[in-house]
């Protein structure tokens, strides 16, 4: 196959990208994105601050722009993200306790009902675990509503849209030996044992000097999969853009049947949240980088 999406489809997988609504008028960007990818994640447009800027007043203008572009171009959509400490609107940041808990539930219901039946997988909860050696939860206003906030989010999400796969998504859970990875693994195992609805784990996989790719990544993917969930690589970027590392990530996903697909966090280096200087993606302007060829050959 001659595109990332078609090559991934040969093994029943997808290859996606983050899309930002503000770039949909850039024809170089849309030409590459339309040609190469078959899954789309809105980079910011389905987050809490974008979709519920005032409590109880939902705004899907930009989320729908990304969604409609994706579907009109034959792509599926991952939803990102419903419950997160980041990019909360001011009104939510100021809530706590039972009113915040209810606002989280209402937010999940409001967004998921708008997109009901249209989303391949939702990142229901994003980045809830702490960095460092604790293996425990990150402190946040949501965590302070009670340790059960994550399972409440997943149960709410299942009821709101039974057709969507429900994912837990995080960064720095790629290295199997890290405490954060083990913390998330233990939560997913507990959820599966107790029947809390969860279908997938999203490995963001932002690789850089402080959190480099490690060859135990394949063990991480297969270990999560063995719990009975899909694994999705959800926000891949590699600082420096090493073709060898991009190939290794791709090979590790292909080695595990339940690794469902890979999404890169942007189209061209200039689109990356890390800045073009990091050279983290697969395209430089309109050109395919060596990392692109490495991925395509590995798929
Ligand atoms: C980033 C976006 O790429 C930026 O445009 C925005 O300013 C901040 O958020 N983990 C996530 C993503 O789950 O939502 C983040 O996206 C990158 C880290």
TrEMBL record:
EC number: 3.2.1.8
Keyword field contains Hydrolase: yes
An individual GO BP term: xylan catabolic process
Active site (catalytic residues): 235 (nucleophile)
Keywords annotated in UniProt: Carbohydrate metabolism, Glycosidase, Hydrolase, Polysaccharide degradation, Signal, Xylan degradation
Keyword Nucleotide-binding: no
Domain of life according to the entry: Bacteria
Catalytic activity, as annotated: Endohydrolysis of (1->4)-beta-D-xylosidic linkages in xylans
UniProt family annotation: Belongs to the glycosyl hydrolase 10 (cellulase F) family.
The name this protein goes by in its record: Beta-xylanase
